[in-house]
Amino acid sequence: MRGMLIIGLYLLAMLAHAGVAMSARDALRYRTEADPHGLIADMRQQLDKLGGSAAPAQERDLLWLMGTAAVNVNDDTALTEALLRLDSLAAARHYDLAAASAGFLRSRHLIASGNGDGISEALRAAAKVQDATDPKIIAWAKYNLCDAYAMSERASGAMPLCEQAQDAYRALGDTWSLAEAENDQGVNFAGLNQPEKAIELYQRSRQHFASLGAEQMVAMVGDNLAQMYLKVGRAKEALLLSQASLAQEQATGRISDALVSRANIALDYATLGQSARALSTISAAVDDARAAKMDGLLPELLERRSRMSEQAGQPRQALDDAREVIRLLGERNATTLHSDEVSLEARYATRENELRIQTLEHQNRLQELALKTAQAEAAEHVESQQRQALVGMLTKGVSVALILIAGLLYLLLRAQRRYAAELRVQALRDPLTGVDNRRAFMQRATALLGDDHAPRLTHVLMLIDFDHFKRVNDSAGHPQGDRVLSMVADYLSCAIVDVGHIARIGGEEFAVLCPRLGADAGLRLAETLRAGVAALSLPAAVPLDHITISIGVALFDGDRCHDLGSWMRAADAALYSAKSFGRNRVVASSLLH
Ligand SMILES: Nc1nc2c(ncn2[C@@H]2O[C@H](COP(=O)(O)OP(=O)(O)OP(=O)(O)O)[C@@H](O)[C@H]2O)c(=O)[nH]1
């Protein structure tokens, strides 16, 4: 009874504050974002009170709200509790909706912790309610799938789902959920680099949340909107929005959100050319993060301050911050390496490589900053020495020593420059196979389309994926799998060296980019590569006859493909078809239309 009373009073207070008609249900959803800890405690109390007398639908509802709030604040204890109770409710009552709810909560948790299995978990959850006829459940499953794809930054997969979820919620008159789906769709457009469309969706979402009086949601979507404003050069509007968000976040004690808003405000000031304000704002954010022991956010904030200091002509501060970033990232790497010992999963290996590259890039920058500082200090030194020479204070011996020092300094700077250049190359190279990495591929492809948007002969893109590569690892072990990957990468690099570039863009996925190769030659080359790989002899330690690859080919024709995103999607769809048609084959995207 007391729990009910608390919730009732809370709702009344909130409605009075909002001054508009937020339904009781929406008010509870609001609390999953605005008061997650309080909501979890209240849900627990309610569930305890109801004991075994709760109807399944009511129990599921309370557990879903509790689990949602738990995911939002990373409360693992509450999440585990909600999941266990949902699982047993699903098993005891054959209640699919409870099973799907547990699945979607698991998926959100996986995605929030950067685990790649979140989407498949969401797909399994949706399958549990695929026969549902209640339009509310259908819309709910669509939205949760849309959210899983959008939050995993899989914009092209997410967009149709988010569109369908919006239509369904519009038909049901569920403004809250509509606003959530619109926000997700905005995230998708932002991911596809279409800021104008993203702005449109975020504005719609904000209007809907505002019409419900959900001020914190308005502020949250406002953060997304501000980033897009900045992207399209509307820095003043971005600044106003970020300042409004910051006020909200400070008032409600959301420290980490407030730090992000501060960092955004600093960026807005920098874009508006107010570098002193930008620096003092980002410094305040760094101090707050240190005081609140927000170590996760600290490297990003320091990195931003380092860049701003560099732009403001303060290389010493830039250098100190960059050094600290390296130290913090080093600590993080150490933790990841430890978990790598526990599991040799390729996912960890890939993450570890990413972290190494990230660190390498920072080290690279650090070298450059050290160089700049050394140059500035050397220039100052030489200037002062020259001044002294002018007034006749220099003896001959000191002059000779200075010349020697200048010579040594020159040699040192040259070595540092070489080292920095080498690091820059390493940051673009895949350490296992020695070919370009994904970052290098994206840079190269973007530059190609920027230079030559209407080529006389079409550009050709191939996405290559190993078939059943898991069997190699399972039968011969991961190190042999690595050997096979390197061996095939060597073969492919040699085979395309005259016409294009190859990059390793995922675990066992490669991309080949052939500028102005033309459609016929492109398809012939793909077929040659496929047959060549199938004919390779594998190392003796691998107990398989051969390894095969599937290839999706897309042509940059300026018609169906007009930018890098659509080009890659076309090649990806062709690769997917090559896999579905039985693998070990080449499929051209033009055949799919
Ligand atoms: N040895 C090794 N294996 C890797 C690496 N990156 C990814 N893998 C493995 O590649 C396999 C990919 O598995 P799946 O995505 O199921 O694909 P597949 O077995 O190739 O099957 P299909 O793509 O469906 O033909 C997993 O077993 C990963 O562990 C790597 O760097 N080294």
UniProtKB/TrEMBL annotation:
InterPro entries: Diguanylate_Cyclase, GGDEF_dom, Nucleotide_cyclase, Rev_trsase/Diguanyl_cyclase, TPR-like_helical_dom_sf. PROSITE patterns: GGDEF. SUPFAM superfamilies: Nucleotide cyclase, TPR-like. It comes from the Bacteria. Keywords: Membrane, Transmembrane, Transmembrane helix. It catalyses: 2 GTP = 3',3'-c-di-GMP + 2 diphosphate. Residues 457-591 form the GGDEF domain. The chain crosses the membrane at residues 390-413. Signal peptide: none annotated. Its EC number is 2.7.7.65. NCBIfam families: GGDEF (TIGR00254). This is diguanylate cyclase. It comes from Rhodanobacter panaciterrae.
